[in-house]
Design goal:
single chain, Aminopeptidase, seven-stranded mixed sheet
Amino acid sequence: MKIEKIIENKKQFLDLLLLADEQENMIDKYLPRGDLFALYDDDLKSVCVVVHINSETCELKNIATYEKFQGKGYGRTLINFIYDFYKNDYKTMLVGTGETPAILSFYKGCGFEKSHRVKNFFTDNYDNPMFDGDIQLIDMIYLKKDL
């Protein structure tokens, strides 16, 4: 297994990034300025994007694993990698997500705790209603992890 920081042609990973953020123009807002990491285990399994917020904080903007490889620890491995990668540069890592129990549980299992909520984020910023299964995403739930 290896994890690479991708410097050029980040859009080649768009199909995977769209699994976690369904609207391409939203990805276009953070991908150019973000650090993109790709996890390979023989072939590509997961990607994530981390952006600089300020001198003390970075944000995990997108993390996605191909559906057939989900639940095998690739996402957690990628989070552990970026935790180590950024721990000397920032004090805190944020991640924003919809109010979906399984995803919130995943992040809590990775050491994140609830931080704050942005009301109506998904309804205000996306062209179409966003769903995770049967759950419509309305508010953005932010979690944080001390690095």
